[in-house]
Amino acid sequence: MRFLRHPLCIFTAVGVLCLVLIYRHAYTAATYVAQQPVPFEHSTHTAADKVNMQCQSCHAGAEKGAGAGMPASSACMDCHRHILADDARLLPLHAAANADSSVYHGEPLRWVRQAPLPAHVHFNHGYHARKGVSCAECHPNPDAPTAHTMQSCLDCHEKHALPLNCDSCHH
Ligand code: HEC
Ligand code: HEC
Ligand code: HEC
Ligand code: HEC
Ligand code: HEC
Description:
The chain is mainly α and about 170 residues long. Helix content is about 40%, strand content about 0%. The structure holds heme C (HEC) (5 copies).
């Protein structure tokens, strides 16, 4: 076992330990806030004493479709052609959707999904909306989305006395 005390071996062991710790730190954080192309805040846009927009006006699919969907960049320009028109934070939006701007290139903004489900689970927004489940029950704070766990689905389904058979959620 003398080779275990070789400097190269100790060096490698320390390196591997560091990688494991970094990996665990990165993937066990309770909330993970991705770097978005524009520092968009839900609170500004949806609070009753601010812009007071409805969720569905930007995520139209959530009422009827399977996916909620993301707003078109042009829909943001309806307001931001006038509001914060010269604000540097909105330059990527002008590049995406304001043909009069000098930075315009027309590539839509690419939002980063923060709490997607794994591919083996299927979820239907429209189905839940028709049964009267509100957005806030599953998305209490869309500015800091937390992962949807299997337990979070089952807890509510149990309350509604739904059958918990695996293939209703899994392919
Ligand atoms: C003005 C348009 C707008 C309105 C209104 C709006 N959203 Fe969003 N929403 C966005 C944009 C843009 C993103 C992508 C950036 C981000 O994640 O913050 C997003 C992202 C999300 C996400 C993150 C999904 C993920 O996994 O990444 C959820 C959940 C969400 N919105 C729910 C809501 C709910 C609930 C409401 C109503 C309270 C709402 N939104 C109102 C524009 C909007
Ligand atoms: C109905 C009008 C309206 C629409 C539509 C709208 N915004 Fe806004 N937005 C506002 C107002 C009002 C403010 C606050 C202005 C201020 O701070 O003076 C704001 C603020 C912002 C800010 C500054 C940070 C923050 O959120 O407070 C960003 C970034 C922004 N909006 C991005 C967007 C994006 C991206 C979209 C499209 C997904 C969008 N907005 C759609 C009205 C709107
Ligand atoms: C019963 C729980 C539940 C309700 C109610 C719900 N959502 Fe979701 N939402 C989810 C889950 C789970 C995901 C992740 C879906 C995926 O990754 O396939 C999600 C994803 C999203 C996304 C990301 C984009 C997308 O299409 O996946 C947005 C935006 C969103 N929801 C908005 C809303 C809005 C707006 C409402 C209300 C009209 C709403 N949600 C109601 C559970 C819910
Ligand atoms: C806040 C409550 C709530 C949460 C959270 C919730 N659901 Fe539901 N779900 C319901 C209700 C209510 C129904 C409709 C019951 C009925 O048919 O009357 C439903 C129905 C369903 C159905 C169809 C019923 C069946 O057995 O075929 C599926 C599939 C489903 N939900 C998947 C999910 C998944 C996946 C999640 C987690 C990502 C989730 N739900 C989270 C309330 C919820
Ligand atoms: C109401 C919806 C729902 C039902 C019913 C359900 N699951 Fe899940 N399941 C989920 C969701 C959502 C995830 C993803 C959770 C995550 O990514 O953390 C998941 C993840 C899993 C995973 C992956 C494990 C993991 O931690 O990622 C397994 C295995 C699994 N489910 C098995 C089952 C079995 C077996 C049953 C039946 C006894 C079942 N599920 C019933 C929604 C459901």
